[in-house]
Amino acid sequence: MGKKEICLEKTVFLTKCMLAAYILTAGLLLLLAFLLYRFGLSEKTVSLSIIGIYIAVTFAAGFLAGRHAGRRKFLWGLAMGAAYYVILVIVSLIVNRGLQDVSGSLATVFFLCAGSGMLGGMVS
């Protein structure tokens, strides 16, 4: 197998991991919305739950990427966490039409996503 085929295989796998991560995120956010509707959760509880979802999903994506990579697992986990964050920011920019609402927490969310993805890669 040539270098080009290996690179294509890894790109396809990472794309599948990212798609699975966003499907898992959507499912968990729907569950959170149901719990909010059913039990009337406070704003603080919902905010902490969203952060927990980001951490859990990027950890899982980093774990899968690290398991598949074999070597330098932490870098693949970090890449998955960073890619998840980039897509999250792009979608947020499209929905909010600017950074004014989310600019204060951008750095925090980046470190949470990248760090938990890297941790998932190290654990795998």
Topology:
Blueprint: H1 3-39, H2 43-69, H3 73-96, H4 106-123
Helix pairs in contact: 1-2, 2-3, 2-4, 3-4
Number of E-type strands: 0
How can the largest sheet be summarized?
A: none
In angstroms, what separates the terminal alpha carbons?
25 Å
Count of discrete domains:
1
Low-confidence stretches: none
Could you say which structural class the secondary elements and strand pairing correspond to?
mainly alpha
Summarize the amount of helix as a percent range: over 70%
Query: Please, how many helices?
Result: 4
Query: Strand percentage, roughly?
Result: under 5%
> Outline, from the CA principal axes?
elongated
What's the average pLDDT?
90
Q: What sequence of helices (H) and strands (E) makes up the elements?
A: HHHH
Cα gyration radius (Å):
16 Å
Description of the molecule:
The protein has 124 residues and is mainly alpha-helical. It has one domain (3-123). It is 85% helix and 0% strand. The chain has helices at 3-39, 43-69, 73-96, 106-123. The longest helix is centred in the first third of the chain and has 37 residues, at 3-39. The mean pLDDT is 90.
Task: Summarize it.
With 124 residues, this protein is mostly helical. It is 85% helix and 0% strand. The protein has one domain (3-123).
Structural features:
single chain, 124 residues, mainly alpha, 4 helices
